[in-house]
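Same chain as my last thread, 57 residues:
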Amino acid sequence: MSITIRRAVKEDCPRLLELITELAVYEKAPDQVTVTLEHFEKSGFGEKPVWWSFVAE
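reply #2:
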């Protein structure tokens, strides 16, 4: 099995946010995820990104 690690792109945002939400549910804190997909995309891929991520496929 081969795994590729790459820098996340804007198109990954829906799945990344889904994973964040799933983790919050697991940690019994789903109400702590308040970001919208639009804000999540802008904060990671807008003019001044405040986060970045890697994706393993």
